[in-house]
Amino acid sequence: MRRIKTDILILGSGGAGLFAALHAQQADPGLSITIAVKGLLGKCGCTRMVQGGYNVALAPEDSLERHFMDTIEGGKWLPDQDLAWTLVSVAVERIHELENELGCFFDRNPDGTIHQKAFAGQTFDRTVHKGDLTGIEIINRLAEQVWTRGIGRLEEHRALEFVKSRDGSALSGVLMMDVRSGEFVFVQARAVLLATGGGPTMYKYHTPSGDKTCDGMAMALRAGLTLRDMEMVQFHPTGLLAGLGTRMTGTVLEEGLRGSGGHLLNGAKERFMTNYDPKGERATRDIVSRAIFAEMKAGRVTPNGGVYISMSHLGPERVRKEFKGMVERCADCGFDLAGGIVEVVPTAHYMMGGVVFRGDCTTDLPGLFAAGEDTGGVHGANRLGGNGVANSTVFGGIAGEAMAPWVKRNGVFHEPDEPAIEQAIASARVPLGRSAGDIAAIRERLYDVMWDDAGIVRDAASLGRAGGALDELEARLDATGVEGSSLAFNLTWHDWLNLKNLLLVSKSILASAVAREDSRGAHYRSDFPEVRDLARSRYTCVTWSDGRFGVAMRPVEFTRVKPGETLLKETTTA
Q1: Out of 129, 141, 258, 282, which one is annotated catalytic?
Q2: Is 236 a catalytic residue?
Q3: I want to staple 81 with a disulfide (CB 3.0 to 4.6 A). Which of 1, 146, 527, 560 is the partner?
Q4: 157 catalytic, yes or no?
Q5: Which runs of consecutive H residues, i.e. helices, occur in 454-490?
Q6: Active-site residue among 23, 48, 129, 236?
Q7: CA angle, 7 as apex, 183 and 378 as ends, to 5°?
Q8: Nearest of 346, 340, 339, 327 to residue 249 by alpha carbon
């Protein structure tokens, strides 16, 4: 096993990880900083895949208070209000940093101001974008800065376990694996940032990149940390539906299509959204996803079992200009987004839940910081489109600014718990040498279980079925071997490790969904369809110990505004 030392170890190279690295180095250029990423820096992860844009209150007619209220009301009053305020207020600073310091080019109006487009669930058009390829613009500029500043990189290294100090009181480092060789690597660090992203790829239809398998959340559970809001899995209403034989199925056709006036049609080519919500196609993602799911259940479906999105009434030339990336993607699959209709299906997109963390990105494990989709509390029961990349960049920067002085004040190289390292290596090596099994079949079964019984609509019976099925799948996986004569780029071995993490996090979703006996945002219980008393809102907290999950319900602290109130000033018209 190779051993490495670094002052700060950052797990993940999305918006949170890269911003943290840059801000930590700016705060203290003398620190050694290392970014570890499962794939290649700048080429993998979810931030790069962001199409829609970045929510920020820039226009004179907009305000922080308005963005905040949209976030709280969209999150169905479950967000941590102090975290949500940090999100909307620091986003203004962050967007100027992206443009003026890092060199991002965002679309502009004829008068030179930044163009902001409409996104669902918001009372103001505040989404900054670069066409429909915003994530590529942001990640390219961030990656360029990391490359030029000499920040250390461990590419194609996957994180396996957090390793605590000998006495268990703090974090010592992270056990990793070099994907290129199969060699285990222990990285000892004075501070670690968890920024691996979420990625609900346990569902039949999902949007995240293939490397996203909830590794960070699984590691946090095994380390004894608390995760909140895990039942809140967001389904994007419009994932491309191109048949089951292509990975293009499930990839996002972004919210700007509906925000700009796109129509959703059922299999009979009839608009249906106003039957479910007066906002029609511009309702929040949870409402639109449930409406599409209802049409599917009623049998009013397209040839591949979904619904259609239609943009041609807006004018094909306008659609080609404003949504170039999606028009080309649809064309690659044989569809005409600009002039025809395209089949879509709700697709698992984002996890509102994650590790409990504080405003300075610290966690309950000394030495471990967290930012981005690995964390819970910012979005509550529902994330507004455009708030995701804002979340990762806002809190990534905060994490970097916090870690640098923390390392100077408190950070030491704790001696690791060596038996824990040995046990983690043994656990990772479990399938090697056993007779090979059908891992693909286990994965496909997981897709179906989570989609059918723990997806857009749930009830006690379906969650119970899912729980039994997941136990069975885990037993099957534990009995499945992997051919291990060569460990270099042994992708079957990594599939096994990925599924192990996905099964653990899937079980945490179930445990939290069983505990929440009401419907709120992305969590819809058909046996408890009503939203319960908002004034006594509670959020779920799940832990895992000795093979068992514990779930507690904790009251939301309305630190800035209570249900039924608003921060917006009343306006009158003459």
Answers
A1: 258
A2: yes
A3: 560
A4: no
A5: 460-478
A6: 236
A7: 95
A8: 346
Taking the C-alpha atoms of residue 563 and residue 182, their distance in angstroms, rounded to an integer, is 52
Cβ neighbours of 182 (radius 10 Å): 18
Judge contact between 92 and 58, C-beta under 8 A.
yes
Q: How far apart are CA 390 and CA 119, in angstroms?
A: 14
User: 68-80 in b/e burial notation, b at 16+ Cβ within 10 A?
Assistant: bbbbbbbbbbbbb
In the chain, which stretches have pLDDT less than 70? 570-574
- Give the C-alpha separation, 74 to 72, whole Å: 5
Of 493, 487, 253, 516, which is closest to residue 381 (Cα–Cα)?
516
Question: Which residues neighbour 569 within 8 Å (Cβ) at sequence distance 6 or greater?
Answer: none
The model's pTM: 0.95
Structure-token pair, residue 342 = 């395209």
Q: What is the DSSP string of 240-297?
A: E---TT-TTTT-B--THHHHTT-EEE-TTS-B-GGGT-TTGGGS-HHHHHHHHHHHHH
- Cα–Cα distance for residue pair 523/508, rounded to 1 Å: 14
Residue position matching structure tokens 């620091």: 90
Which of 554, 466, 452, 478 lies closest to 227 in space, CA to CA?
554
